[in-house]
Automatic annotation (TrEMBL):
Pfam families: Fe_hyd_lg_C, Fe_hyd_SSU. InterPro entries: Cytosolic_Fe-S_CAF (IPR050340), Fe_hydrogenase (IPR009016), Fe_hydrogenase_lsu_C (IPR004108), Fe_hydrogenase_ssu (IPR003149), Fe_hydrogenase_ssu_sf (IPR036991). SUPFAM superfamilies: Fe-only hydrogenase. The gene is HYDA1. Residues 329-388 form the Iron hydrogenase small subunit domain. Gene3D superfamilies: 3.40.50.1780, Fe-only Hydrogenase (Larger Subunit), Chain L, domain 3 (3.40.950.10), Iron hydrogenase, small subunit (4.10.260.20). SMART domains: Fe_hyd_SSU (SM00902). It comes from the Eukaryota. This is Fe-only. Belongs to the NARF family.
Length: 392
């Protein structure tokens, strides 16, 4: 099997002067991009990637970290609703839904777990929906006038862009029909190849900031790049929302960091009034398909050490820093090095909690209302299908 290349379609699209060209860059791409230029992980900044994409001909460069923050707002709210057992809320444990490799595994091999999946689209899915449905109309452009290119660490993201909720989900009056939310997905390797083809040396460029209004992000968002990061980011927000504004005693959750196959922790969320024992949330983190299958088996058999309320699953070892579209490396410690840069970027961030992102707050004020609103559901949530009978 080989990945489906979309590089030459993107090269053609970049020459089309009639359309607006937009790129959005995933959290883990920024820690691996330097390897495309023969440098160790973390030597090229997001700002240099933005500058390089502008030189390639993209009119706007957004940051998928923005939609990672948005994912946390929606997913954290969904988790709290399930914990409260609100009417219509899905069952526990809730599983994360941002990894298409994991979603494919559930739909094909564990369809009985579909109700347990968060209904949130991935950050890529949310970004595409916002670009075509919110940002393009503000620019007074039809969605068909915009080409959106998602830069990802992941070959499975190419398939995700073809899911019904993403492909043909947005109506264009110009062509009187549907258009995709994400037109193309390029891997870190593909975009690295394009930079080299165009002789754009990222390490030598001056950094530029991603464009507004989909470019601002927090340290929580960059954590999506490493195993355990989605969980850590979600808890920073869910804890504060559920406890009436109290902060997690410690921002970094060392129990769920690192490359151990299965990690777990317990978080006690105090009651908003400070009275009573509060709620204990049991969280689990797993990465790699074999480890995931083994954990699901233990959960099914009732292993007391494998009973959780919220589980993060990433199909690749290490999470997206080890994605199938990342740079190939001979360094045995490459995952540890990329992971260290993810944590470093979070630590250096001025804002480290998704709900503190001012651009996210503005988006809710102007467009979405509140997390979990009808508008949020229409744009940012998805559904799943039992594909266990499917042969291809
Ligand atoms: S863990 Fe792997 S399959 Fe899942 S989103 Fe990240 S790169 Fe893609």
């Amino acid at each position: 099997m080989r990945e489906r290349h979309e590089l030459f379609q993107v090269i053609d699209a970049l020459e089309d002067q009639s359309r607006v060209k937009v790129a959005a860059v995933a959290p883990s791409v920024r820690v691996a991009m330097s390897e495309e230029f023969g440098l160790p992980p973390g030597r090229v900044s997001m700002g240099q990637i933005v500058a390089g994409l502008k030189l390639l001909g993209f009119d706007y460069v957004f940051d998928t970290n923005f939609s990672a923050d948005l994912t946390i707002m929606e997913e954290g709210t969904e988790l709290l609703s399930r914990l409260r057992k609100d009417p219509g809320a899905g069952p526990l444990p809730m599983f994360t839904s941002c990894c298409p490799g994991w979603i494919n595994l559930v739909e094909k091999n564990y369809p009985e777990l579909i109700p347990h999946l968060s209904s949130c689209k991935s950050p890529q899915g949310m970004m595409g929906a916002l670009i075509k449905n919110v940002w393009a109309p503000r620019l007074e452009r039809d969605p068909a006038d915009v080409v959106s290119v998602s830069v990802m660490p992941c070959t499975a993201k190419k398939g995700e862009a073809h899911r019904p909720a993403d492909r043909g989900a947005t109506y264009s009056s110009k062509i009187d029909g549907p258009v995709p939310n994400n037109d193309y997905v390029l891997t870190t390797r593909e975009i690295g190849r394009l930079f080299r083809l165009r002789k754009i040396a990222l390490p030598a460029l001056d950094a530029q900031v991603p464009d507004d209004p989909l470019g601002e992000s927090t340290g929580a968002a960059v954590l999506f790049g490493a195993t355990g990061g989605v969980m850590e980011a979600a808890l920073r927000t869910a804890y504060e929302l559920a406890s009436g504004g109290q902060e997690l005693p410690k921002m970094e959750m060392s129990d769920i960091r690192g490359l151990q196959g299965v990690k777990s922790s317990r978080v006690c969320i105090p009651n908003p009034d400070g009275k009573g024992p509060g709620a204990v949330v049991r969280v689990g983190v797993v990465h790699g398909t074999a480890e995931t299958r083994a954990l699901l088996e233990r959960m099914k058999l009732g292993d007391p050490a494998a009973q959780f309320d919220f589980v993060e699953v990433m199909a690749c070892r290490g999470g997206c820093i080890g994605g199938g579209g990342q740079s190939k490396s001979d360094d045995a410690l490459v995952l540890q090095k990329r992971m260290a840069h993810v944590y470093n970027l979070d630590e250096k961030s001025a804002l480290r909690k998704s709900h503190d992102n001012p651009s996210i707050q503005k988006l809710y004020e102007s467009e979405l209302g509140r997390p979990g609103s009808a508008r949020s559901h229409a744009l940012l949530h998805t559904h799943y299908a039992d594909r266990s009978e499917q042969t291809t």
